[in-house]
Write a structure and sequence with these properties.
This protein is of the alpha+beta class. The protein is about 20% helix and about 40% strand. The longest helix is centred in the C-terminal third of the chain and has 16 residues.
Length: about 140
């Protein structure tokens, strides 16, 4: 988790149910180059009384290209995110690849992934806004 936060300081941290883990587990999300969403899920196991974390599982990483952003009128004269369409780059990887990515300081080419820079997706700021708003809702609960 600390490496993810160091590489991507704008990360949104959420507590979600992830495969093979107790609830809540950790989900770290960020956006890259106004085109990609990058998420790491970290499974968490708790003690029988649910008061202590007894272990963390191996992280699962998901890099997803956004090809387009659909918008809708929010009814108050603003625009909201309606949805996204996935692009060609949809990759999932584990601990070994994550360690290589950390060693390269976030250069996805070490994993054989070609990440486009300088080609932002129109309205991508709505994806960022949506991601940030999900964190605020969690903080306010």
């Amino acid at each position: 988790m600390k490496d993810f936060l160091a590489l991507y300081p704008d990360t949104v941290v959420q507590y979600l149910k992830v495969s093979g883990a107790d609830f809540p587990s950790l989900s770290l999300s960020t956006t890259l180059h106004d085109r990609y969403e990058f998420r790491m899920d970290i499974p968490v196991k708790y003690s029988d009384d649910h008061l202590k974390i007894v272990s963390y599982g191996e992280p699962e990483c998901h890099l997803m290209e956004v090809a387009s952003v659909s918008t809708r009128d929010d009814g108050a004269g603003g625009i909201e995110l309606e949805g996204t369409t996935g692009g060609d780059l949809q990759k999932h990887f584990g601990l070994k690849e994550w360690e290589a990515l950390v060693e390269s300081k976030g250069d996805f080419s070490v994993l054989g992934f070609k990440v486009e820079k300088g080609k932002p997706v129109p309205n991508f700021e709505l994806v960022i806004k949506h991601l940030k708003s999900s964190e605020r809702r969690k903080e306010n609960q």
